[in-house]
Each structure stands twice: as C-alpha cells, then as structure tokens.
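We were asked to recover a plausible sequence for a given structure. The inputs and outputs are reproduced exactly as logged, with field labels preserved.

PROBLEM: sequence recovery
POSITIONS: 295
GIVEN STRUCTURE:
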C-alpha cells in the first residue's frame, strides 16, 4: 500500500482487524505534525501499560481460580463416587435417618437421574454470553449493571475509566481535537454503557460546552475527574491532567484487586467449611448414632 503512494496511516486503515481506530488516529496525528517518532513512542508506552495491566489482573486472579477449580473437581468426585457408596451404606442401617442425611440421599438421587442438567445450564449460559455480544440492547444492559456489581463492579468501573484516561491523554497530546478525541475513545472502550455516556459528552461539546462542564452532566464520571479537567482547561495542561488521573486510577486498580482477592479467599474458606459441615452432619451423624446404639 505504501509503495502505491498511500500514507502510513492509510495503509494501516486497510487492516481494521489489526489496527484500531485509536492506533491509526495517533499515527495520522504524528504524520500531520511531523512527529511520527513521538507517536510511536506513545503507542509503545500505551501497549506496555496494557500488557502490564493484564499481567497484574492475571496474577491477582490466578490463585482464586485455581482454588475454585480444585473445589469444583473435589465436589464432582465426591458427588459422583463417594456419596453413592455412603448413601448405600447408610440406607442399609435400617434405622431412622436425621434430616441432613435424608437431604443427602435425595440430592444423590436427583443427581443420578438429572446429572446432565448442570451441564446443559452451563452450556446455555456460555451460549447466552456469546450471543449477547452481538445483541446491542442486551450488551448495553449488561455493561451498565456489571459496573454496579458488589465487589467486582468497582474494579470493572476503574478499568474502563482508566482506559478512557489513557486514550484521552495520548490523543490529546497528539494534537487531536476534543470532539474527535471523544469519538475515537468511545469506539475502543468495549463498554456500551460508558460509550453512550461519552457520546452524550461529545454532543454537549459539539453544542459549545466545555469538556469539564459536559462531563459533569453525565453520570459516569466522578467529581474528581471533571474538576481536574476544569483545572486542565484553564491552565492548558489537559494532557498532564489526563496522565495524572490515569496514574491515580492505576494505583486504585491495584488496591481494588488486592481487596477483591482478600475477600475471595475467606469466602472460599467459608464454602469449604460449609461443605465439610454438611458432610459431617449427613454422614457421620447416623454412623455415630448407630455406634451409640451398639454400645
């Protein structure tokens, strides 16, 4: 493409599945200002930030995921192999059974007859999430309410706001106008609800309002951001404001990740404890009762 006379940014546009509109806009701005080397440096810094962020998230969730998988495997083995033998043994005692044991026997019978139901529900859930990505209304609702989920909602919110600040910093520093910056940023956030809010900000900016005033009129941006943006507008340092806010949100993401992990670990321990308690009540209770009668 370049050999045929196209610019570098035009050549990149021929591959939209590889290079995002954000990437192309930064390159085009570098071509226009004669600072293509600076644009490449900014893009490299952004890609490094993205890789580091993904690595931090992966590191934080690896341990809880391993523990959850081990618990699920242990439960499957227990339900499939251990419970049937215990139920058979307890049923042969010919004695009144306590309520927990009756529940265990009923559960084992249901699982033996309808073991495929959990698999079908899990497959249906995966299919629903896969299809929801193509259904704009469903995706909008999910993207909106996942920001309000307990524990994880705060993390989802901080991630999308941090990405917005990083995009805004690079695009504004590259010399792209605020209206165009918002349009490009809106398309790469991967959250339909936040994208709609940014589109509302963009419309207000198009109507002549300042960026900070427009941000204050939508519900997605906290007070800290639009007040800081107002300072950046008055001092001509918007790029520095975006950079500092992005740094603060990166630190907040790390704190939230640690908080989420610290909450998941005791929850997993409680689940394991409840499972063990259920086993003790349903299995050992009748055995101890039988031993007591024999004694």
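RECOVERED SEQUENCE:
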């Amino acid at each position: 493409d370049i050999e045929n006379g196209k610019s570098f940014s035009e050549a990149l546009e021929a591959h939209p599945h590889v290079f995002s509109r954000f990437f192309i806009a930064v390159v085009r701005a570098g071509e226009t200002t004669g600072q293509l080397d600076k644009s490449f440096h900014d893009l490299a810094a952004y890609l490094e930030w993205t890789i580091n962020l993904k690595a931090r998230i992966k590191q934080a969730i690896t341990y809880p995921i391993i523990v959850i998988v081990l618990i699920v495997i242990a439960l499957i083995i227990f339900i499939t192999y251990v419970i049937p033998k215990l139920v058979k043994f307890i049923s042969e005692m010919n004695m009144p059974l306590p309520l927990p044991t009756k529940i265990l026997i009923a559960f084992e019978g249901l699982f033996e007859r309808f073991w495929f139901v959990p698999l079908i529900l899990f497959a249906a859930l995966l299919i629903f999430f896969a299809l929801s990505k193509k259904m704009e209304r469903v995706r909008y609702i999910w993207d909106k309410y996942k920001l309000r989920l307990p524990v994880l909602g705060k993390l989802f919110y901080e991630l999308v706001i941090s990405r917005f600040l990083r995009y805004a910093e690079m695009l504004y520093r590259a010399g792209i106008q605020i209206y165009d910056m918002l349009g490009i940023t809106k398309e790469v956030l991967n959250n339909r609800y936040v994208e709609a809010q940014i589109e509302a900000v963009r419309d207000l900016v198009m109507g002549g309002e300042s960026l900070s005033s427009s941000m204050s009129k939508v519900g997605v941006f906290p007070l800290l951001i639009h007040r800081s943006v107002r300072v950046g507008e008055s001092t001509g340092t918007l790029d520095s404001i975006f950079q500092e806010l992005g740094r603060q949100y990166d630190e907040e993401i790390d704190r939230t990740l640690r908080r989420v992990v610290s909450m998941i670990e005791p929850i997993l321990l409680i689940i394991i404890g409840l499972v063990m308690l259920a086993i003790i009540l349903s299995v050992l209770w009748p055995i101890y009762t039988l031993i007591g009668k024999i004694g």
